[in-house]
Each structure stands twice: as C-alpha cells, then as structure tokens.
Amino acid sequence: MPAISKASMAAQAKLDQEEVLRLKQRAARQAVAAVTEAVEEDLVDIRILPLGDGKVSMGIHIPGIGDAHYERGEIAKGWLRENAEALEQRGFAEILPPEPAKETP
Amino acid sequence: MTAPTNTIGSTGTPVPNIGIREDLENTIYRVAPESTPFISNVGTTKATNVFHEWQTETLATPVSTNAQLEGDDYTLGAANLTTRVGNYMQIVAKTGGVSRTQEAVDKAGRDSELARQKVLKTIEVRRDLEMRMIGNYASVVESGATTRKSAGMLAFLTSNTSKAGSDGGFSAGIVAAATNGTQRTFTEALVKAVLATAFGNGATPSQAYMGPTHKQQFSAFTGIADIRADVSGKNMATIYGAADMYVSDFGAITLIPHPYGLTRDCVFVDPQYVKIATLDGLKSKDLASSGDNLKFLITLEKGLVCSNEKAHAVIRDLT
What we know:
Helix content of chain A is 41%, strand content 24%. By secondary structure, chain A is an alpha+beta fold. Chain B has a 6-stranded mixed β-sheet with strand order 7-16-13-10-12-11. Chain B has a 4-stranded mixed β-sheet with strand order 3-14-15-6. At the A-B interface, strand 2, strand 4 and helix 2 of A face strand 7 and helix 5 of B.
C-alpha cells in the first residue's frame, strides 16, 4: 500500500477547506435570496364588512375572554393577499385598492 | 497487483462468473408515519345517515344579582333550547390491481402481491381519514360531481380559539373552515391565554395535538411543573428532555406530536367530547376483473362528531 505523504494530506485538507468555503458561500447566497423573497410578500389592506363584524381576529387573545376582533368598517393593514382573498370570499372583508404613492415635493 | 488474466470472479472482475444466485432479502422495509393518533384516541359512535346530527346546550352566564322579593309572583325566564349540529359522512376509498401473473411468480418479501397491496391501501385509507378528521376542512354537501365531505376538528372550533385570521364553525347545516391569518411564533403565553379562556367556558382538555416542530417548541415551555420527576427511595431523579405531559393551571395535558396532520395549529382536545361516527366501516371488495388481472376496492364511510366545540381549544396560525 503506498504511503500517504504529509504533503499530499495537506493538499487534501486544503481541497476540503475550499469545498466547505464554497458550500458556505452557496448557503449564504440562498439565505439572502430567501429573506428577499419573504420581504417581497404581497400585502394588502382590508376593510371589515358587516358580515365580518366581530369575526376577524386582531391576533390578540385576552386570557379568560377570547380573541379581540375587528369591528365593522375598521381597516386591517398588512394582510397576505391569499388570506385577504379568503376573507373576501366569505364576505367578511373587502380588499382595499393600494394607496397611491405620495409625490415628494 | 491485479488478478491474473482469465481469473473468474464477481461482477467487475475481468471475467464475471455466470450463474451466481442473486442475494435479495425476504423482507421489505417501510418507513412512513403510519400512526393515526387522533382517530385512535377519540371516541366512536354509529351513524345511520349520511348527515349525522347531535345537539348541544349551554347555561346562561352566572350573575351575582339573582335575589328575589319574598312572596313575589314570577314571569318565566328564557327557555334553554338545544342547538342542532351536524356533519357529513365521507367516503374514503383506495383501489388497486395486480396481474394474474404477479400472483404466480416467485416474489421476495411477500407471498401475495394482492394481499400486500390491500394492506398498504388500508393503511393509506386510515391516514387519509386521520388527516381529514383533525384538519381545518369544511363540510361539503354532495352535489353533481362534488363529493360529500366531513368537516375536520379545526374547522368546528369557534369558542376557545387564538388566531390571527377568522374561525369557521357550524352554521345552517354546514361547517366552514377557518381562514388563515398572519403566522405567529408559538409561545407559552399563547398556550396559557387560550387555556384560561377554555377553562372559563367549562373546557378541561387533556390532550394537545401539534406538528413535530411545535412539539419541540412546546417541550421548552415550563408549565407549572418541576422539570424533574419526583422519585422515591434511593433512585435518581430523571430530567426529561421532552415534555410529553404539560401541567397547566387547569390540569395535565398530554402532548401528542402529529406526524402529518397539523402544520400551523396546536389543538387541545377533550376526547370525551369528540367522536368518529361510522356509517360503514372498513371494507375490502373485489372489483369485477376486466381482463387478466385482479382488482380490489377498500372503502370506509365516516365523519367527525365534535360533540361540543366548547370542550376544545386551538391556537391557530403558528409559524
């Protein structure tokens, strides 16, 4: 069996390190892509309709009582379009048109 | 060194031998979540129609001002009427088929391919039922090409719920599914809050079902219990790595990780108040052969009976 020289072991270790570095760079690039994707979620505002009065949660649960809910006419901001559309289908809310961008003087 | 030319050996050698028997184990290994914890833990009942109904009742909110005049005359108070609730029985089925030849050939790991297929399809049917029964699914009336469907546990619950969207619930013969909201981190504060609400409504759930990630997060909650089990005698105390029992302010709750049925919800269940209704149990039927083959059909027809949704609780919209 041929002996493995110190030099060849060092060269192998260097190759391994380069491989690890390459994988780290790849993971970092993918992580950045994932974060960018999350930021670019399609968010919309909704207005609560009579049918949804007291049925759409504000995401706050009061122990011993229950969830606090939006009331008729209230505007809930930052809903995922998919969830907002589901509420709209049930007649609980309507999706508001996006606010026009403010012009800078 | 290499083997001399023309040395007969195994595959890959200069002269691979001919006539060596294959080495194939007579065992088939299957790794898949087969358990159906929810339908196995809750009760059972019999259904006699495709729409199964039951009744619920409630008490008026207690008041401390119930004091009457001596010798007074009375008008009758509001009557305590019952509420009818119902759900549809769902047909869950799987089919399979094997050629006649496959039953005749010598097989490794099974004697009959048909029997093996039937066993696997039966497990799959039970898993499909489990998925439906515990999930957030609306009930559906059969109409035209639309199949009849049973509502799932998460859809029934409206009273003791913590959410970021909207509950579903039973109304006018149909159970609506809950609408998702923006997902939140699973915290012990959410658990404590919803359990307090549930207790206020008379619920004392004893089981909590959740997905694998939420089970890991739940195990980090402290509850009101000491993390070390009390032991007697000279035995050493045990420190649990995973909490399978959460001791809340309102009683102990067994934590049951669900391998495939829950992804964004943690549901607290009182198994006394939920049942699986059976219109027709698990059946295996041979289908008419249309050629040189054998066909079969596995069916069951069941639905969920959430006896009183106030007995349970849920935390929805978890990341």
